[in-house]
Each structure stands twice: as structure tokens, then as C-alpha cells.
Amino acid sequence: MPHKKWILVMAFILFSAFASSTLLAATTVGSTQLSTDGNLTVNGNTTLGNGTGDTITLQGSGTYTLGSVNSFQITATGSTLNTVSPLTITTTSATDANAGVSSVYTQSSGATGEQAAFLTIATQSSSSGGNLYGFQVEELQGTASSGTEAAFYQRGTAWDYGLLTQDTIRHELSGGVQVLLASTSATTLNSGGHLNLDITTAGPTTGTGPVEGIGVNLTPSGNTGSDADTFAGIGLHINNSTTDAATDDNIYGINIFSLSGTAKDADDTAMYIDQAGWDDGIKIDLSQPDDSDATDTDQGILINAATSASNDADTIVGIKISDLTVTGGGAPFERGLQIGGGWDANLFFDDTTSTIQIANTGTFTFEDSGGNDLLTLSDSSDLGNVGITGTLTVGSGTAISKILKGTCTVDPPDLAANATGTASCTSTGTLANDTVFLTPRAAPSTQTWSVDTVGSGSITIRFQESGTDGGDPASGTWDWTAIR
Fold it and tell me: Under DSSP, is residue 303 helix (H, G, I), strand (E, B) or coil?
């Protein structure tokens, strides 16, 4: 008899469902299927089914309505991943306006705190290392069409943020992250940038020691390939499709804007590279394409003319190479600047009043690649001294290899009228065939003189007395110069 009572109860429920169905509080429907062709209204807690194959089917335009203080709760347990799906919704789109699941949520005018159209609360209780995802989109099934398939799509620009997270975002696709952004205007781009990263990081606090604040941190895995692969933390591919021929547009691969905030005494660096581990800090492949212009100038590095508005005794430096400190046990050869061949001019100063400076009392040394000194320019008491280790040719004249200069003491001979004689001058460093110039600081009043011979470290001077014997000339200091 209990079985017949159950049949009568079910018959009454199914009869009432033709117009609309209402389940009262604490209603339980067992394994027998419950179907309604109209609306299903729940006024209390309702439990549907007790097996993994039980379904809820809404046919036609039926709706499932909850009371103002009721909730629809689905509870299921499972010990194996993906074997139990508490709620499975299977839909087939008939028109472009359909959606598998729709949430139409309206926030009341007096609402405070946080509200969400979809809310997921996940609790990890696995001790077996299982993965837990708050939201998971499986692989796209079927054949891809000519349209766009996106696992997640946020429409419109009314939201403050398309995606707002407080936790780390991780990307596991081996192909990297690709951002495709289409301009809505052929001439006007988003002033904030196509990809705008508005990031706030904690700066240093007084007394807490140095703090490293990084807006964007890229930590890609290392390249383990054995081929000549190209591996980059950031890759920029820019396609210039500008058709504006009236003016030249500015296109930047990376544009770092002026630093905002209050000027500080600390060093503010627009781009900082820690070169440790890298072969090159910055590498630029410079090539000049052929286009319709005839006067293009392409620069590997361009530093625009600086403007100083400082009222202090500041210094502006276009390129600065700091002091090198070698701490290893080897003996590397260091060059602050190296320019290769093939250039029409390896160094060009585009200024008619160019100035090259060295620290006060410093010395310029010009060497060959073997370390041989060719020319030195030294600063001595605010005067320049030039030293040449090779030869000096002025115009098309004879090459000069050495110029010697010194003083000696000369004692002219006591000669009779019209007689000749010699005296010696010690000249350290002179050799035979050197061209010598002599200048007495007090010349004999009645004698003439000339260089007779030049030897190793000595110059012989010939004197001739005039027609009147002038007596014995006094000994004196003579200046000599020898050119080889």
C-alpha cells in the first residue's frame, strides 16, 4: 500500500505542473524524474534526486524561480578528479543572441562592500597534491571557424578594469603572451597606450634599508636548445602602415616618458641593465633601408640636444662611461670605446668649435694595438707638451724623428786679428749629422761663429776674429737645439 500512496502523490504533483509547478518547503523528489512544461517555483529547500544520473530539465520558456530569501544549493562529493560534476549545463546555440549561462545582476543603490554577478568560494582540502582552479575553461571542441574563438571575452569599455587581480597571474603557454589590440581610428590612438600597465610598487621607507620595487618583472626560463635559436624576454614587432606623406611620424619601439613627481637628489635612471651574465648589455643591429627619401639619417643611438633648466652648477653628459674595476685574477684588455672599420669617419665632431678635454694635469697617450706609444699630449702648468715617438713631417718636407734641446758653457778662444779657432759645447744626446742651432746669451763682440762639427754628445764651434783684436771673450752660457 505505501507504494500506491507514492503513486498518488506523484500524480497530484504532475497534474499541478501543467500550468505552473510549486515545490513547498522541505520537498524531496527521489529517483523518479520531475518534469514541468511551465515555470518551477521553489518556496523552500528542495532536494532533487540522489543519484549521479539525475537531471533537471527545463523545456520551452520555463523558468526556475527562487524566493527572496531562498538559495539554490547543489552539493556533491567525489574522491577522483573530474568524475563528479555537481552541475552540468548542456546547451546548443540556435541564434547569435544565445548564451550557455546568463547572469543578469543588478546592484542596489544602497549596496556597499563587494558584490559579484558570479562568486566562487573554493576550499583546498586535498592532501594528494591535486590542482584546484576557481574557474577552468576546457580545450575548444569541434573545428575552428573563420570567426574568433576566445576562452574569455570582456566586452565594452564601461568597466574600470577589464581584469583586476590581487594575486599573481601565471602564463604557461610555451608560445609566450600575445597582446593584440586594434585601433578604433586610423589617425587617433589611445593616449594611454594600447597596453597600459598601471602598477604601484612599494618604495623605500626611511630606516628600513633598500627596497626593490619592480613594476613589471619578466622571468622567462632559460634557452636549452642546441641550435642557434633566438630567445628574448620581450619581443617587439612593429608594422608601420602609415600612409601620411605630409609629415614624418614618430614611431618608437619603447617610449619612456618623463619622470613624474618631485625632483630628487637620488639617481633616477630611465633604463637600468644589470649586464652580469650577458655577453652584451645592449646590442643594436643598424641597417638603413632604401625608401623614397634621399636625405635620411639613421642612428644606432640618438641623444637629442639636452636643455638644462637647473639653477645649480650641474653637469650634463651625453654618454658617460664610468671607471672600470677589474677584480679577477686574469689580465683582460679593456677598451672604454671601440669603433670598427668601414666607416668614412670613425669619429666626427659636427661643430666648428669642438673641444676635447682631459682632467687637469692629465696626459693624452696615443698608442697602436701593440701598446706602443705614438704621441703624448701632456698638461704641464696649464701649457701643453707634445711628445712624438715616431717622425714628424710638416707639409711635404723632411721627416723629423727627434728634436733635442739644452744648454752648455762655451769659452770662445782668444784670437789675433783675422785668426780662427774652435771651442766645444757639451750636447747630451746629439749624434753626427744632426742639424744644430746655437744661440749665445752673450755673444762675443768682435768674433763671428758657426757650427763646425757635431758628434756624439758634443758640438764644435768655429770662431773668427775680426780685423781688430778684441781681446779674450768671456765664457758664457749658450742654448743649443738639435734636429734629427
Answer: coil
* Gap between the Cα atoms of 382 and 134, Å rounded: 76
Phi, psi of 2 (to 5 degrees): -55, -35
Gap between the Cα atoms of 214 and 190, Å rounded: 25
> Per-residue pLDDT for 444 more than 60?
yes
pTM: 0.50
Cα–Cα distance, 438 to 461 (Å, whole number) = 9
Kindly state the cell numbers that stand for 246: 605630409
Could you tell me which residues come within 8 angstroms of residue 302 by beta carbon, excluding any fewer than 6 positions away?
Answer: none
Nearest C-alpha neighbor of 461 from the set 412, 422, 408: 422
The residue among 149, 130, 49, 13 whose CA lies nearest residue 83 is 130
Beta bridge partners of residue 407, listed in sequence order? 479
* 12: helix, strand or coil: helix
In the block, cell 701593440 appears at: 370
- Which three three-digit cell numbers place residue 115? 558584490
Query: What cell does 450 get?
Result: 758657426
Q: What are phi and psi of 4, to 5 degrees?
A: -70, -35
255-302 pLDDT per residue, tens: 777 777 766 666 778 888 888 888 888 888 888 777 666 677 888 888
Question: Grid coordinates standing for 157?
Answer: 569599455
74 phi-psi bin (left φ>0, alpha ψ -120 to 50, beta other): beta
Three-class secondary structure of residue 373 per DSSP: strand
CB 42 within 8 A of CB 23: yes
How many CA atoms lie within 13 Å of 150's alpha carbon, on the beta-carbon side? 7
- Taking CA atoms, 256 is separated from 260, 307, 317, 484, in Å, by 11, 18, 19, 60
Place of cell 753626427: 432
Containing 478, the helix (H) or strand (E) segment is strand 476-483
Pairwise CA distance, residues 373 & 389, whole Å = 7
**Model pLDDT, residue 212:** 52
Please provide residue 373's backbone torsions phi and psi, each rounded to the nearest 5 degrees: -70, 125
Helix (H) or strand (E) holding 156: none
DSSP-derived letter for residue 392 is: B
Q: At residue 217, what is the residue type?
A: N
Residue 136 has pLDDT above 80, yes or no: yes
Distance of CA 138 to CAs 135, 151, 179, Å?
Answer: 10, 9, 21
